Amino acid sequence: MAQMTDTAGPVMTTADGTPLKQALARATRRSKIRAFLLVAPLLLFILVTFIIPIFDMLSRSVSNPEVQEAIPETAALLADWDGQGLPSEDVFASMAKELSKKENRREIGRMAARLNFEDSGFRSLLNKTQRRIDRVKEGPYKDALIAIDKDWGETRVWKIIQLMSPPTTLSYYLNALDRTYDQDGNVVMQPDWKQIYVQLFLKTIYVSLGVTVACLILAYPISYLLATLPPSRGNLLLILVLLPFWTSLLVRTTSWIVLLQTNGVINDTLVWLGVISDENRITMIYNMTGTVIAMTHILMPFMVLPLYSVMKTISPSYLRAARSLGANPLVAFVRVYMPQTVPGVGAGSILVFILAIGYYITPALVGGQDGQLISNFIAYHMQKSLNWGLAAALGTILLAGVLAMYWLYDRIVGIDNMKLG
Amino acid sequence: MADNKTPFVQFSEVQKTYDGEILVVKDLNLDIEAGEFVTMLGPSGSGKTTCLMMLAGFETPTEGRIMLGNRELNNVPPHKRGIGMVFQNYALFPHMTVAENLAFPLEVRKLSKSEIEGKVQRALDMVELTSFGGRRPGQLSGGQQQRVALARALVFEPDLVLMDEPLGALDKNLREQMQYEIKHIHEKLGMTVVYVTHDQSEALTMSDRIAVFNDGRIQQLAPPADLYERPENAFVAQFIGENNRLLGTVEEDDGRNCAVRVDGRMIRAVSVNHAGRGSPTTLSLRPERVTLNPEDGSLPNIFDAKVEELIYLGDHIRARVSTCGDDEFIVKVPNAHGHQTLAEGAEVRVGWAMEDCRALDA
Ligand SMILES: Nc1ncnc2c1ncn2[C@@H]1O[C@H](COP(=O)(O)OP(=O)(O)OP(=O)(O)O)[C@@H](O)[C@H]1O
Ligand SMILES: [Mg+2]
């Protein structure tokens, strides 16, 4: 009698009695190790340059150590404050003491910058206080601080410090979504003039969708032509399509400036042809139009390649079969050819959309005021305002959006159906 | 075919060139009767597919006309020709189920839903795939896909069906089975079939008539038996079945029979296709028509031969002998009761009747 096993049945063995599964595992182990060694360098590279930075960004978007590091004792005392009126004399005393510590200068500077993101009065308040704190020799500290700057007598100021005391915060995300904490720690909308990011996210999505659709419409016929042409001529055309890849991104973008600007080639030609008058030259650059035109051009190859590689595999006999079955050319194309290109359309669209949604250099160069996208603001916060937390939060939201797109695509079309080459 | 009623399909003086330099099809004339099963047989590159594509409308003839019924086809687009077609790689639409594939030609003809359902079901029954309607082509075996392709080409009841090497991708057993199925469906439905293959046994099994193609021309158009028994030129004799070729010169010719000098010997043969006395000719002789060690005087052609090689094939033995200056001369010795035992190197005599030896073009 064979023993009952999980697989309900006798275990298959090789001639010398080892179970088949074990023998198979042993036989494939070598090739698995080999495969791992082959990918290991790339894996390491990706880990260092991609995965770790992403986690760094995620942690930066919630990390909030500045207040803790600069005034640990005050922060601890403030935690117990009920938020009514002003904090107790102890809190003022501890604040005065910690602000006067010379070795804390750098941390206090960082805290000032951090708090300034929440309310733009903080940097000057803290700087002023730090400069004058040495004159305060003894209490009551409450009056002394308020004497240095009357802002210390405002509940709001202390509330903000209290809110920013914990080592982690969601305030960057709130900011990124045009929201903020009010005095009582409730989430409220930013004042109107500060609401920009939600609008910007939406604009970025619309622009990316627009660019994707434009790329698709322009790339589909080209790819079809490339795929159906005899290989010799098809390859030549494909090289022409890929030519932009060989030219620097900056060169391509600036050449659009030459073409599109008010005194550029296109406007000059139109004026010369008499289509428009000299005064009514069309503004096609340093605005959204410029951004869309240049991005469509630059991202086009990413649409053409997946489409081409899918169309290449579709045998012309399908179209012939459809025609022989009585379908006119249009019906044959729509009902037989196009459904088979869906994997390419999906792959190309998702590629272009994801690239577009994070595109930076082109909008920066040709976008002008209103052609800026979310990544330009991320760059701004990285380089100019140095609000890395907000930049990280914006970046994380962007990443989540892209992943959501990916998930949606998988649900609707299926990732397995995607074909990049 | 000296009929005076108009043929169903008619190629007249059709020529085709793809590049303007080489004629792929040279002066093609072919009449096909309604209900006939005609096979185009020929070596690779002989222009069979090209002819079929011109008939289907995917290639245009460079010269000449193609008629279908009373219609001149030259300017009719493929989808208006109403010709069913089975492709070599089946060309089943991969994104549609089997039933949707079959419904496609009916939908584009705007038939009603219920009509479509009925016809699709009948077509599936016909190819014995009744319960496979919901599957995708990718989930079918090669033979099943083949049947679906066949059903799809027939479901809209075309009068003419074209098949371009439809069985090329199947293994031998399945191919033979499908040959009979296609033949039976043809007998049952009575449509006209133009079939392309380069497998001669397939052509011989299935066809009413076979057009042997070579070099862009039809070499001979005849029923299978005629083609085998009475080849009209050396190419056909060589291409269909096994054949012994002897090259010689015509010495005497009375119009029906002739005497041909081959390697110093005189062979008596039927005059079929040679240019008369003094001209070179190819004698064609089937291996199974050669008698081993015949009685003296029983046959007009009897010669000495030497056995070079013997191959045992069960039902018969193939003997390669050298005779009349040809050491590739094949004799099929039936493995009958009391057949002669042969040994390699043995001296034997071979003989054949005059009618079995045909003097063709050189
Ligand atoms: N689209 C084309 N362009 C140029 N030449 C072609 C084209 N199609 C076929 N040919 C040439 O025409 C000749 C006949 O081709 P065809 O396909 O008709 O041969 P076939 O008899 O069907 O051969 P096979 O048995 O290999 O299918 C070949 O020499 C081929 O190279
Ligand atoms: Mg062919």
From TrEMBL, chain A:
Residues 201-409 form the ABC transmembrane type-1 domain. It is found in: Cell membrane. The chain crosses the membrane at residues 35-55, 205-229, 236-259, 284-308, 344-366, 386-409. It is a multi-pass membrane protein. Keywords: Cell membrane, Membrane, Transmembrane, Transmembrane helix, Transport. It holds the Pfam family BPD_transp_1. InterPro entries: MetI-like (IPR000515), MetI-like_sf (IPR035906). GO terms for cellular component: plasma membrane. CDD domains: TM_PBP2 (cd06261). One of its GO terms (biological process) is transmembrane transport. PANTHER family: ABC TRANSPORTER PERMEASE PROTEIN, INNER MEMBRANE ABC TRANSPORTER PERMEASE PROTEIN YDCU-RELATED-RELATED. Belongs to the binding-protein-dependent transport system permease family. CysTW subfamily. This is Polyamine ABC transporter substrate-binding protein.
TrEMBL record, chain B:
It comes from the Bacteria. SMART domains: AAA. Its EC number is 7.6.2.11. This is Spermidine/putrescine import ATP-binding protein PotA. Residues 9-240 form the ABC transporter domain. It is an enzyme of class 7 (translocase). PROSITE patterns: ABC_TRANSPORTER_1 (PS00211), ABC_TRANSPORTER_2 (PS50893). Keywords: ATP-binding, Cell membrane, Membrane, Nucleotide-binding, Translocase, Transport. It comes from Thalassobaculum fulvum. Part of the ABC transporter complex PotABCD involved in spermidine/putrescine import. Responsible for energy coupling to the transport system. One of its GO terms (cellular component) is ATP-binding cassette (ABC) transporter complex. Coiled coil: none annotated. It catalyses: ATP + H2O + polyamine-[polyamine-binding protein]Side 1 = ADP + phosphate + polyamineSide 2 + [polyamine-binding protein]Side 1. The complex is composed of two ATP-binding proteins (PotA), two transmembrane proteins (PotB and PotC) and a solute-binding protein (PotD). Belongs to the ABC transporter superfamily. Spermidine/putrescine importer (TC 3.A.1.11.1) family. GO terms for molecular function: ABC-type polyamine transporter activity; ATP binding; ATP hydrolysis activity.
